[in-house]
Specification:
zinc, zinc-finger, Znf_CCHC, Alpha-Beta Plaits, alpha+beta, six-stranded antiparallel β-sheet, RNA binding
Length: about 240
Amino acid sequence: MSRTIDVRCHLLPSNLRGWEVVKRLVEFFRGEGFVVVAAQPFPSRCFRVTFGKDGARAKAVFEGQGAISLDGVECEVACPPPQWVDVLVSWFPFERPEVEISNALKRYGEVRPGRFQKWPDLGSVYTGTRIIPMVVTKEIPRFLYVGKFCVKVWYRGQPITCDVCHAKGYKATDCPSKGKCFVCKEEGHLSKDCTRRVNVPVTEAAPQSPPCGQAPGGVVSGCPAEDLWDNELNSDSEG
């Protein structure tokens, strides 16, 4: 959280109500030249304060100071704990080790050991999707390579990305390319059957997309997720 700090106000008089503490916080930070846009109360009279404009600078200033003074009482300033989210990784082979996914994701934040997603009401039958807890510090692409395997990624807060054309801002159901061949943009056939394909091998060192890339004049032959991609182009599923 780049604009947020925690202020521990447990030493303030106990008869002060929560809104009264927030009022003092807002007035204090306004006097320092910063605007508070949110003040969330937590147990033990800790208040999570988020700043508006210049929030990153405010965070650096007050975390650097380590404390602020409210009514003559020193209140400790701390960095909020990291926010963990579940990152869902689909299309990765069930039998492959999780360490391969962890190595691919660690460039986007802190990674913890994950688990498999299960089908509802089917006991111990897994969907194959991995659920990986992460502190995401850098946006994870909707599609990325784990070794030679193209995988699909979703997590709460991820920017909306079209599963068909990879453009941001809309879903596959609204894609202008839906139902068309990805190579020639015509209807009536799939990209794997297009006569304008380029038949060159796909390598792990130089993966293509979508889902593995597009070579000049057509889609590369041999993409390990090609059938999945054609299904995305011609189905109503958001995935």
